[in-house]
Amino acid sequence: MRLSRRARRWTAVVAIGPLVLAGGCTSGSKNGKAQAAPPPTLTLSPGGNAAKVPISTEVGTATDGKITAVTLTDDKGASVAGDMRPDGSSWLPGRPLDFKRSYTAQVTATSAAGKTTTQTTKFTTMDKPDSQVKTEMYFESGKTYGVNMPVTVSFDPPVPKENRAAVQKRLLVNTDPPQPGTWSWPDDGKQVEYRAPDPWRLGTKISVRAALAGLPIKDSFGDGDHVASATIAQNKVNLEVDNKTKQMAVYRDDKLLKKIPVSLGKASTPSSSGKMVIMEKFDTTVFDTRGEPNGGYVVTVSDAQRLTWGGEFIHAAPWSEGEQGYTNTSHGCVNVSTTAADWLMSVTHVGDLVTVKGTEVTLDQGNGFTAWNVSWEEFARHSALPVPADLKPAPQPAPSASPAPSGSSAPSGSPGGTGPAPADSPAAPASSNSVGG
Description:
Number of domains: 3
Shape: elongated
Radius of gyration: 26 Å
CATH superfamily of the largest domain: L,D-transpeptidase catalytic domain-like
Active site: 315 (proton donor/acceptor), 333 (nucleophile)
Protein name: Ig-like domain-containing protein
Distance between the termini: 29 Å
Domain L,D-TPase catalytic: 237-357
Helix content: under 10%
Low-confidence stretches: 1-30, 402-428, 430-437
Keywords: Acyltransferase, Cell shape, Cell wall biogenesis/degradation, Peptidoglycan synthesis, Transferase
Mean pLDDT: 85
Region (Disordered): 28-49, 387-437
């Protein structure tokens, strides 16, 4: 998912305080004459002739004004495009700089009074590092996602708390129409997720840049930039699974489409209760749990939709159709009939919300796309940067239900279960188990 695109304007979700200007009703004077406002003071970063500069470097830093213009060229005279930070604190190149390359930056700062200062700095970038943090972004260009799709970035090794603010500042999201949100870190620092207070509006266009190449992270550096643009679907789909009734209710635009009998995880391998998001979909895949606790089987399944890194899926389980709606027999998956599984694949999107309730265990944060498994207040509390206090969810209307036929059942067969990430699926972040139970 390291996709390069032409440079464009990016926005980072950072709380910016108001610019306060001190002053009175009259300007200062000396001998009765008004004094001209001084030009802004400009401290250049990187400094002149700096060496081994990270290829992630930003340019600028004005102490009493804003950076308003930057031109950056390499040692062959080629220019590098980029964009200003919204608060005018620095200028961000639109791509990672090259290793072991010399650059010249001309930087202009402007004061509140309109005075300008322009200076030039030269620097040389670092060698390619021996140690890199493996990063992965689970958001792809050209895709259509459900309204609850978070943007998720994983890190191996995890990001220490003291480095998370610097990393988060390099995670840039732009939405059309605008829907500001924030990033949130599970305690282990193995992934970070972005969402707004409310689900995305239908048809929203989302562009993301995880500008991590060469970014210092503890004793290492980010391994690459990740860029993607995708669209949110034109309808909202959500699934609600109740262990008490052994039924799945399928809603589209808050209207009940169908109820489907299910068989969840048995007592020794229970399904997780919580708010999950469909992570990926497979027409056919193989669960191989040999050598895993409560595993030891290999089974091919159809119409599988991943819910967790740990290996919980919704999938067709013809062997348990007799138990669906009555008894839990799986190794943690949501088993449905072959007919129901095929129908669900035609209705759902990656990014749709799946809520499971009433099971013996709760979903762990970070075990999948878990951005909606906590309240907005709790989610925002785990941002490494300040979140505007007025960024809150809007009141949500209560869903309306209408009668719909239940799914069918069929004779039972051999036991079903969950399995590891299929060979062609994106790698699970180091935060989670790649094999479920």
